[in-house]
Hints:
By secondary structure, this protein is mainly α.
Amino acid sequence: HPQLDLAHVLRQAKRLGGERMLLYSLRLANNLLDAVLPSEVVRQMSFHPAIDGLVEYAQRQLFDDGDRAVPDQPTVDQFRWLIRERLRDKLYPYYQRYVTDVIAPCEFERQLLPLPRELSFLYYFIRPVRLVTKRGLRQIERIVRRATNHDCGNDETPVMPG
């Protein structure tokens, strides 16, 4: 849009931690739609070398045949990591997933141990303990299975050289 002050928009995006996302979007629009980019925007893109790879990834996603695998294709998590600038923005989705999947109690805990409303805060302690116990027992089972699978099959006791 000719009336848009891109220099101001870039400053705002940088302040909010979204400069790379904005530059990525502008580069994608430039590549796909031949949108004209001001020299200041192109200069800013040079400070973010990951943008070109991300744009290439987006173009492959849009136009490559879906039946064949694209080599070196980043996962969604890798893409999100590369597109964000600030560490807190990169870590937030993982924090959110951790809170949702590990800390926040679910209906199963409430059915497993019905507590009165006054004690419902205890579910935030019960869930992590239950998950650690559950996952810990699985790990112990795997270790035991792995140890029994590595058994040589002979009953001879190894003799230490001496």
